[in-house]
Amino acid sequence: MKIPILDKFMFDEPSVWVTATTIATLISTLYLIFAEIMGNHLQYSKFANSNKTASTTNKQEAGVKIPSRIGMLIFYTPAFLAGLVSFFLFPGGDLRFFLLKLAVTLHFFKRDLEVLFVHKYSGGIILGSIIVVSGCYLSAAAGLITIHYLTLGQPEPSVDLKYIGLITYIVGILGNFYHHKLLSELRKNNEKEYKIPQGGLFNLVICPHYLFEITIFVGLSFISQTPLAFACTFGVSLYLTSRSYATRKWYMDKFEDFPKHIKCVIPYLL
After folding, report:
1. Domain for residue 2, yes or no?
2. Dihedral, 38, 42, 47, 49 alpha carbons, nearest 10
3. From CA 205, how far away is CA 215, in angstroms rounded?
4. Residue 267 has what DSSP assignment?
5. Which range marks the domain in which residue 139 is found?
6. How many CA atoms within 13 Å lie on the side-chain side of 50?
7. pTM of the prediction?
């Protein structure tokens, strides 16, 4: 059943298999969101050992742990390569399709550069979490591009959001990089201890880098305007919001002087 108002903003899905992919994307992201809310965090960053209990310690310690820098490169590189390869697999298309391929590729290339030259690390990442995160990013990058390719030749949505999407995407990229840079500057020399972030929007929310990551995906969905793109943005937004909530709780438990006015991801609201 079609919803007329949505038809103004989205392409029609070209087949039942594409619809199934969109539904599967929503279901898989809802599972990750539920796991995050229940405290079963993906094992990276400050949550690398957060799921340990008396009954699971041995199991966690027996898991394969990869150095953080290598693990995060595995997070993003397959998605970057998928974006890069798409220029050769799908060389044609219109301006919208070119902008989508470029935006997906640049986003994950930027993340690789940050892994190599910006982030600072302590500890490692459990291999299982690396596989999950890398798989999610790869499927998102490949899915966004491939499914948009299948819409080429269809009538454009009556409301064109691609230029608004491009501006939104650029704001997200810049804001995300800026706050990642602030995080990296918290640790001097070889320090590995966590500190309360300061500067930028860190004075208002604990995860502004997640806020701008969400902004990036909003931009991608506006550029693409396919149902899958909006589904990815919806899933990413809910997942990163739940992750932000867990991050705020982690800081409040660790630091007695954590400012109570600092929200999770949206200033003054959430």
Report:
1. no
2. 100
3. 15
4. T
5. 11-45+63-254
6. 21
7. 0.89
